């Protein structure tokens, strides 16, 4: 049986050590090799890209980036590793994985249960991102995009606006632009508290709006432009969206 290459992601060092020990115990039944460890999802991304593991053992609750969000970003990779979640919360696990789309381990992890999960990982299907999004109603902390063969992470808090660009979405931060392989409608639904729609093709971070000015161009659908902090671009506000945006502008002025 081919050796499984494994990465352990958990914010608690004793939990990582326990998994290493258990992986050694089951190596005779399920040959494996631990490539490395990470203390949160953000730190794990670089390791996963560099080491290309077959399986990632992921704690669900971690600081900086939790296991659910990490799994969403991994699903964007060309060859994503199989993900096995670990959790200390029985009710959470049952709710999360009753579809049996991926396996999970309840802490404290038992050797035979780990061996069974690793066996399933050999034939694991890609993770259903829709299910993962349902488990994280507050939305991701980062967006991800592919650029020159790498997976780049963009903190959502740094995104000033999102603009439809053919089949992609352009995300603008203070420093630069990124192309996301996502739909604007989905991003609006996921981050409804952070972004407001200005136009059918434009979302802007509420806190990034610094004012409005009239549009001098002959555009029947766009009478106003939104001014955005830290960038020179002025974003069109459609006639349809103006009542909602104007209401927000009044809140802004007070």
Question: What's a quick, concise take on this entry?
Answer:
The protein has 254 residues and is of the alpha/beta class. The chain has helices at residues 13-25, 41-51, 67-74, 90-97, 111-121, 129-134, 184-190, 242-253, and strands at 4-9, 32-38, 55-59, 82-87, 103-106, 142-147, 150-155, 161-165, 168-172, 177-180, 195-199, 202-205, 209-214, 222-228, 234-238.
Could you explain the architecture of this structure?
It is a single chain. By secondary structure, the chain is α/β, with parallel strands linked by helices. The chain folds into two domains: 4-134, Response regulator (Rossmann fold, 3-Layer(aba) Sandwich); 142-253, OB fold (Dihydrolipoamide Acetyltransferase, E2P) (Beta Barrel). Helix content is 30%, strand content 32%. It has eight helices and 15 strands. It has helices spanning 13-25, 41-51, 67-74, 90-97, 111-121, 129-134, 184-190, 242-253; strands at 4-9, 32-38, 55-59, 82-87, 103-106, 142-147, 150-155, 161-165, 168-172, 177-180, 195-199, 202-205, 209-214, 222-228, 234-238. Strands 2-1-3-4-5 form a five-stranded parallel sheet, sandwiched between helices. A five-stranded antiparallel sheet has the order 10-9-8-12-11, with no helix packed on it. A three-stranded antiparallel sheet has the order 13-14-15, covered by helices on one side. Helix 2 runs parallel beside helix 3. The longest helix is centred in the first third of the chain and has 13 residues, at 13-25. It is elongated and about 75 Å long. It starts with a strand and ends with a helix.
């Amino acid at each position: 049986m081919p050796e499984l290459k494994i990465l352990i992601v958990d914010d608690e060092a004793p939990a990582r050590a326990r998994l290493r020990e258990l992986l050694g115990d089951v190596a005779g039944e399920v040959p494996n090799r631990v490539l490395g460890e990470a203390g949160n999802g953000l730190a794990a991304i670089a390791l996963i890209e560099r080491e290309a593991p077959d399986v990632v053992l992921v704690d669900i609750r971690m600081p900086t980036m939790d296991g659910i969000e990490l799994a969403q970003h991994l699903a964007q990779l060309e060859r994503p590793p199989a993900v096995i979640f670990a959790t200390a919360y029985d009710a959470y696990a049952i709710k999360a994985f009753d579809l049996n789309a991926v396996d999970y381990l309840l802490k404290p992890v038992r050797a035979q249960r780990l061996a069974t999960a690793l066996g399933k990982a050999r034939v694991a299907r890609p993770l259903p991102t829709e299910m993962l999004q349902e488990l994280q109603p507050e939305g991701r902390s980062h967006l991800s995009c592919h650029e020159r063969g790498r997976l780049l992470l963009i903190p959502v808090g740094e995104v000033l606006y999102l603009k439809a660009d053919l089949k992609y979405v352009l995300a603008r931060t203070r420093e630069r632009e990124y192309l996301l392989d996502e739909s604007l409608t989905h991003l609006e639904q996921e981050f409804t508290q952070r972004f407001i729609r200005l136009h059918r093709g434009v979302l802007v971070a509420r806190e990034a709006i610094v004012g409005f000015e009239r549009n001098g161009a002959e555009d029947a659908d766009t009478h106003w432009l939104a001014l955005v902090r830290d960038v020179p671009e002025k974003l069109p506000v459609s006639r349809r969206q103006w009542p909602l945006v104007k209401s927000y502008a009044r809140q802004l002025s007070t």
